[in-house]
Design the sequence.
DNA sequence: CGCGGTCTTCAGCTAACCCTCAGGAAGGCG
DNA sequence: CGCCTTCCTGAGGGTTAGCTGAAGACCGCG
């Protein structure tokens, strides 16, 4: 998890509390730019809105453009308009200072649970993926996946029954801007071969749109 | 979506606002028991905590036991302990009254987005089309449509009961300026064949003018 | 430096899709 | 009823999206 908060005591308290929960935290005291944040490969970003040299909203915009990262805003600005601005940017939660440490924890846990990143294993139907542990299985049988296949499968499982375009897969799973759809096709193909050794097709192609995992 | 809220004016305001957003709402004025709620097959439950004959927390516990339903609490109890109790039960969000309608909307949207259930589907009669997901169904049975058929159907469903000229269809669905009415005819024909496999005709031809979908 | 594993690129193939065409059915009108 | 227009629909062919086997590039490791 990434935490951007300029007030030293607040940041330290939050960091400590989250670490006690077993959540890995990378703290920043100021707007570090999106690259530094993404380098930490976080599950979630908690952003202060008012930073010495920048704006948490702007940072959120940049993060969202690069990757679909859950975001919780943390700020003293408490008018309804401020909050709406936050949600407009795709915030997952918005907490007003002063806040109870416990409440922040609870909200962070709620978001992580929802995004399926708390207990590391996520499942859909008879497919189980644990990205952290690097394990995946179907109907009980373990799957021998390469790293990219694992990330791809984890992403597909996390997104319920939505259609994911190849472009989306490339940006979210690979971090590319480049756009060679065949890369996605090749990996989907490999993934299918391994998945379908233990059951029927679960990765359906939607011509012209992308791929869809069988909804539950 | 299900909304349980005993204060009549609040409930009506919220219902109206959500409906305006295109979200289907089933409202209850009192603790209806989990079965009644689940019968509505909701994507999300917004629960008041203090109800005339019961406790929203208890209801949430029962709902959670039955199904993994996202839950947003809505309450006048605003101590941190109350909120922590809510999150403890697996709440996805917790909003303190009095609240701004807009903020509730934003938070509901945020949860739905996160859970991937922000409905993009539109319906007319027994026909449901989700252009984003590339899915369409009639009377529960899925329809196997080609991309153009899907776009065409989505357009027809969106225009409630109006007469659409072929020219209009071609420009709106195809983006053509060209005007070969037979193109539209061919696709309407294919669409009819697939639709009428599961029910009576809903796409009527209005000779000389165009086509009309059966109003609701 | 060579080796195994993995990712990307390439190219050929298949199947789906869309448009065109043409013959026939249906509707409108004198 | 006869004629004309509009619409329906099956079939053919050109085009393209997607699949997949195989070859090349890259990387870490002994």
Sequence:
């Amino acid at each position: 998890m990434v935490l951007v908060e300029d007030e030293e005591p607040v940041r330290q308290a939050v960091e400590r509390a989250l670490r006690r929960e077993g959540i890995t935290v990378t703290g920043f005291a100021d707007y570090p730019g999106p690259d530094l944040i993404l380098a930490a490969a976080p599950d979630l970003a908690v952003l202060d809105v008012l930073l010495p040299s920048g704006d948490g909203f702007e940072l959120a915009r940049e993060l969202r453009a690069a990757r679909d990262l859950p975001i919780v805003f943390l700020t003293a600005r408490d008018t309804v308009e401020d909050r709406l601005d936050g949600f407009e940017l795709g915030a997952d939660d918005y907490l007003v200072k002063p806040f109870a440490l416990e409440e922040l924890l609870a909200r962070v846990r709620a978001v992580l649970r929802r995004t399926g990143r708390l207990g590391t294993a996520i499942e859909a139907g008879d497919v189980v993926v644990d990205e952290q542990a690097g394990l995946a299985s179907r109907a009980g049988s373990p799957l021998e996946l390469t790293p990219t296949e694992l990330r791809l499968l984890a992403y597909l499982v996390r997104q319920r029954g939505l259609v994911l375009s190849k472009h989306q897969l490339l940006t979210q799973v690979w971090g590319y801007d480049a756009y060679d759809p065949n890369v996605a096709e090749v990996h989907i193909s490999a993934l299918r071969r391994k998945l379908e050794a233990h059951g029927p097709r679960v990765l359906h192609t939607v011509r012209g749109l992308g791929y869809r995992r069988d909804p539950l």
Remarks:
- Chain B has a mean pLDDT of 84.
- The first helix of chain B runs from residue 8 to 20.
- DSSP finds eight helices and 14 strands in chain B.
